[in-house]
Amino acid sequence: MRDTTAVAAAAAGKDPAVGLAAVVALRELQESLEELQVTAARDQGWSWQQIADALQVSRQAVHKKYRRLGL
């Protein structure tokens, strides 16, 4: 599933097999977008605390999740 609108519609559908596959696709998209934006924020000098505040998580959580990127 590539079209975000179609994926969102599938996630709200009545067929659990299609809906759950759509949920997985949306989760993967969300993770990819979050990593992209965390990288952009760090490249622009944002602190881990600023990123954590924007994501509404703890500084420790966001740092632990993304430290592997060497940011």
Q: Can you put this structure into words, describing what you see?
A:
- The chain is 73% helix and 0% strand.
- The protein has helices at residues 4-11, 16-43, 48-55, 59-66.
- The longest helix has 28 residues, at 16-43.
- It is elongated, with a radius of gyration of 15 Å.
- The protein starts with a helix and ends in a 5-residue tail after the last helix.
- The mean pLDDT is 91.
- Low-confidence parts, pLDDT < 50 over ≥5 residues? none
- Average pLDDT value? 91
Rg, Cα atoms, Å = 15 Å
Q: Give the biggest sheet.
A: none
Structural class based on helices, strands and sheet pairing: mainly alpha
Distance between the termini: 31 Å
Spell out the helices and strands N to C: HHHH
The general outline is elongated
User: Total number of helical segments?
Assistant: 4
**How much helical structure, as a percent, in the residues?**
over 70%
Number of strands: 0
How large a portion of the residues is in β-strands, by DSSP E? under 5%
Lay out the secondary structure:
Layout: H1 4-11, H2 16-43, H3 48-55, H4 59-66
Question: Which features does this protein show?
Answer:
71 residues; mainly alpha; 4 helices
Short account of what is shown:
This protein has 71 residues and is mainly alpha-helical. It is 73% helix and 0% strand.
